[in-house]
Amino acid sequence: MLKKVAFVLALMLCVSLALALESGPSNTVGFVKKTLPADPDGTGPLTSYTPFGLPFTFWDVVSGVPVYNVPSGRPSDVIGAQLTGGTGGTGDRVISMTTGYYAFRNVLPGLWQGTLEDSSGMKAGVAFQLWNRHAFIQDMVLAGQVDTSTFGPIWIAELAYTPLSFRDARVRPIPNINLRTSGFTGGTGGTSDRLIELGTGSYAYYATGTSLWVYNPTTFTSVSPGMAYRIWNRHDTVPGGWWYNYGPNIVSRPPDRPGSDDPIDKISRPPNRPRGAAR
């Protein structure tokens, strides 16, 4: 009997140790894929520029391995060896929509050159454009650690367009992203400030007559990971604009169970494969 009790206790100890290892701390990672249209003659028509933002935190990459807790904004770490290299006049190019600074993809594996690379210039909250300068469609995958900590604030100048993006892996309803509490001024369709999604032209404004958000098209009710946006401040304000404080400063909750109708913010993830499907 004592041998049986000892065996059960030993088994329970092994299981508890296994569970402890299983539930140890880990990083939540995510990815977003952007499809970049071709530029047949390399002249850069507007259709060959793809706006995007950084939805995650990216780490310094050494010998192909990200170094945890060493953040980086260099294109060589954020984009890496993706896309097609060339010279300054032919290599694919990433451009900051805030400063105009850029870096281009060189012919060497994973090597980028330019101000964004030298200054580690890709940062949370900034909107960027990717210029695919080649005559074929390319895909770019942004993969990093989920991070919903505060970033910014971002200065929204009066009577101007301010490009921006959101470091968030969730699809977030527009009423929940602190626009009104930061200084976004409502009005009518012709006078209210606007949030505009770059690449689609979709926009939203706040109608003070009904105290409701208006969406055009009606499906544009949320901001999405990896997209870039622009706030159109249509007002002459004091002291010349307002600070946009997006930061929710909370950890993203897990995705809802299938079939849940809970409307709160969710992490956007690919659908699960059916049982037995090939991997």
Instruction: Give a quick account of the main beta sheet: strands, pairing sense, barrel closure.
Output: 5 strands, antiparallel
The amount of beta strand, in percent, is 25-35%
Number-wise, the strands total: 20
What is the end-to-end distance? 48 Å
Query: What ranges have pLDDT less than 50 throughout 5 or more consecutive residues?
Result: 1-25, 249-279
Task: Output the structural class.
Answer: mainly beta
Strand order of the largest sheet: 2-9-6-7-8
Following the backbone from N to C, one meets helices and strands in this order, namely HEEEEEHEEEHEEEEEHEEEEEEE
Q: What number is the mean pLDDT?
A: 82
Number of helices: 4
Put the structure in a nutshell:
This protein has 279 residues and is mainly beta. The protein is built from four helices and 20 strands. The protein has helices at residues 2-22, 75-78, 115-118, 179-182, and strands spanning 29-36, 49-52, 56-57, 59-62, 65-71, 93-96, 102-105, 112-114, 128-131, 138-146, 154-157, 160-165, 170-173, 194-197, 203-207, 212-216, 222-223, 228-233, 241-244, 266-267.
Explain how this protein is built.
- By secondary structure, the chain is mainly beta.
- The protein has two domains: 29-145, no CATH class; 154-255, no CATH class.
- The chain has four helices and 20 strands.
- A five-stranded antiparallel β-sheet has the order 2-9-6-7-8. A five-stranded antiparallel β-sheet has the order 12-18-14-15-16, with no helix packed on it.
- A hairpin with a 2-residue loop joins strand 4 and strand 5.
- The longest helix is centred in the first third of the chain and has 21 residues, at 2-22.
- The chain is globular, with a radius of gyration of 23 Å.
